[in-house]
Each structure stands twice: as C-alpha cells, then as structure tokens.
Amino acid sequence: MTKLPRLLRLLVAPLSAAALLLTVFSTPARADTDPVLAAQWQIAWDTYRFYECLAAPLPITGRSQVKRDISIEINAPVEHVFDAYSNINNHIGMHSFLKRVVTHADRTEAGTRYVDFTAVEDIPVAGVPVTANTHAQQRIHRDDLYYETDTWTLPNVVTHQRIVFEDLGDGRTRVTEHLTFEASILLIDFTVTNGVSSHQATQAGLKAAIESGEL
C-alpha cells in the first residue's frame, strides 16, 4: 500500500521538474541582447548575492545541496594549463550546452582577478532545447593556482565551484573541480546529472585542446 504513492512521486518528480524548467527558461528564438544580460546579472547579484556560499539549505526550504568532485590529468605544465583552463572563453564549444559568453566586468583587486559574466547555454529538457542564461562571477587566484566560480540560473539554481591545479612534475598537471549544486528538490537530480556531465565534457575538451597545442 505504501509503495504505490512513493512510486507515483518518483514518476511525477522528473515530469514536474521538466515542466518547471520549460516554463521559466526562454526559448532560442528569444535570445537576449548583451545589455539585457548585463541587467539580468545585476538583478541576480542584488537579490541573491550568488557569490556567497551559504550553509546547506534546510529541508524545510524545499531546496537541496549536492557536492561532487571530478578530476583530470593533463600533459602540460601547470601554469599553461591554468591560463588556458581559467579562461572561460576557451570553454565555448567544449560541450554542446555553452553557446557564448558575455563579459560584464573584468577587474583585479588585491591580487585577485574578478570576472563577471553570463554564459548562454542551450540545455535539453525533456528532449526540447531551451536557452538558459547562467549569471556568474569568477575569482582567479593565479599565484595560488586555483579559481572559484559561482553561478545563478533560473529557477534559482546555484553552483559553487572551486577548481584547483596541482603540479605533478614532468610537465603534468592534475585539475580537480570541487562542485556544489543547490536547487529545489524537484530539480536537484537533473541539475547534478547535467552539471557533472557538462563539466566532464569540458574537462575532456580542454585536455585535448591543450595537449594538441590548440590552446
């Protein structure tokens, strides 16, 4: 008797998540202009302050947080890997989602480089490609060989990323991405699955481009 309602919830949850995403995301035919994206970025900053990594949300809020770590080794010196990998424009074309990057600000304060940008992505939802504007701030710590990127996307999907570069010697580098995903309980599985797969595809693409000399 108790298994049927639980099964129904498991079946309904992905459909509800897909419906929610299709409702809030814009379609490719309504691609936003750069000034509109800049205004959206500022609203996200002012209302959520997505650069702050807060404590994991309580279940009562209807939100969930999941952490994942992914690594890759690249046959190239660590400084070169860092410069190529931390340039968000080099991520374009490395996986099927990311279509373009719009930079709103690029500044250096106290040795840390801050880049405010919006990544325009086409994400498949229930077999339908929808356009998502992911607003982000990247903080690059080149002297310490790591950078952080925090992002916010409708409907209130947040990621916190810390990407660390380790010199393995002999011209080899290990890149480890520490990823934290935060979303509603309906969207968290979709967010984690698609987020991890896109990051893994980007890792593989950057590895190939760096090792071949393209980057």
Automatic annotation (TrEMBL):
Signal peptide from the UniProt entry? 1-31
* Keywords linked to the UniProt accession: Signal
The identity of this protein, by name, is Cyclase
